[in-house]
Design goal:
It contains ten helices and 14 strands. It is of the alpha/beta class. The strands form two sheets. An eight-stranded parallel β-sheet has the order 9-8-7-10-11-14-12-13, with helices on both faces. The radius of gyration is 18 Å and the shape is globular.
Length: 310
């Protein structure tokens, strides 16, 4: 069994390769059973363990184990740790162990960009990122693979974190600045991308400009939420998979409040990629994309990594 460390896992997953690969994978489909979710209560902070299997007609089977401990930020540790094992789906033979953190972050950012490729305005160029974690750091590069992003702002509940990330992005060549006034930053943005572990809404619907695209990729349990219920009122809402209706606190709150009905969902990544759902219809409408993650995305990324060695 081969071992791919962080650098070796990252190398084949440039967004100009990964986003098209995800588009093809969602169009083709795969076997993706419901994820296993287990709460861990050991010590002061509670954690969550996700077990996410998937297999494809291409002959690969993958299983990701991901541990989420939001309290780690206070310890100076990442809130997410993951491992990924790729198998031969015909024999069950293990092929490779990969860095699950890198796969998770890059496929999540790539799915965000894939959603934006259908839902953000063609001329969208101002990106606002909420969060400063591993996934948030990748969002400018991911979205720049599908839109001509030339201005990036970042907000974080710890302003010093936003300042540090903006400085890092500037060093990488981005026109990037920290946002201290979240409302003003949201009102200005063409794309608002939330990649946090928030449990209370951060973005308010009345702040979102006509023609804007709201991208919600951080929260993935009913207890987590990044947007208030008014964000969905009057917007065309899409999800990565139908599982989002059961897993997303953002959607559950909106449905309970009556600002969104399940039958009002406009489509999934699969229906968008197959051409069965219409993406953005005009430059004035507001769009929302809510993702909770799919094992199909992990398997697609892991397959790219594996095939890079053949």
């Amino acid at each position: 069994m081969k071992h791919f460390d962080e650098a070796a896992t990252r190398a084949p997953l440039a967004f100009d390769r990964l986003v098209p690969a995800l588009r093809a994978a969602f169009a083709a489909g795969a076997q993706v059973p419901p994820r296993h979710v287990h709460g861990i209560d050991q010590g002061i902070d509670k954690g969550t363990v996700l077990i996410m299997p998937a297999w494809s007609d291409a002959g690969f089977l993958g299983i990701k184990t991901i541990n989420i401990f939001p309290g780690n930020s206070a310890r100076g540790l990442p809130g997410l740790h993951a491992t990924y094992v790729l198998y031969d789906a015909r024999t069950g033979v293990p092929l490779a162990m990969m860095d699950g953190n890198e796969i998770t972050a890059r496929r999540t950012a790539a799915a965000s960009a894939l959603g934006a490729s259908f839902l953000a305005r063609a001329d969208a160029r101002r990106l606002l990122v909420l969060g400063t974690g591993r996934i948030a750091r990748m969002l400018p590069a991911a979205h720049a693979s599908v839109r001509a992003i030339d201005e990036v702002r970042v907000w974080n509940h710890r302003p010093e974190g936003a300042e540090a990330l903006a400085a890092q992005w500037r060093a990488e060549g981005w026109n990037a600045h920290a946002a201290t006034d979240l409302e003003a930053a949201v009102r200005r943005a063409d794309i608002v991308s939330c990649a946090t572990l928030a449990t209370a809404p951060l973005v308010r619907g009345e702040w979102l400009a006509p023609g804007s695209h709201l991208d919600l990729i951080g929260s993935f349990t009913p207890a987590m939420r990044e947007a208030d219920v008014r964000c969905f009122a009057g917007a065309r809402t899409f999800v990565d998979t139908d599982e989002a209706l059961q897993k997303s606190g953002d959607l559950l709150d909106a449905m309970a409040a009556g600002t969104l009905r399940a039958d009002e969902l406009q489509g999934t990544l699969a229906t968008l990629c197959r051409g069965e759902s219409e993406g953005r219809a005009n430059e004035h409408e507001r769009t929302v994309f809510k993702a909770v993650g799919s094992a199909l995305e992990d398997l697609t990324a892991a397959t790219l990594v594996w095939q890079s060695t053949i």
